[in-house]
Model the fold of this input.
Amino acid sequence: MATGASKPMTVADFCTELGIARSTFYDWRQKGRAPRCLKLPNGDLRIRRTDYERWLTSLEDAA
Done:
C-alpha cells in the first residue's frame, strides 16, 4: 500500500497545489506541458509525486 508521501496525486490535488483550474491542467496535458500521468482502468488520472517534483524542477528559471 502506498504511503502518503508516495501516494499518487489526483488531478484535483495537482490543481489545488498549483492553484489552477482543471481546464488549465487538461490544456497543459493536451499541449504536452503537464507532468507524466498514470491512467487508471476507470479512466481517472494520477500523477506520481516524483514526476510532479521532476516537472516542477524542469520549470525553474536558470537566469
About this structure: The radius of gyration is 12 Å. The chain is about 45% helix and 10% strand. Residues 49-58 form the longest helix (10 residues).
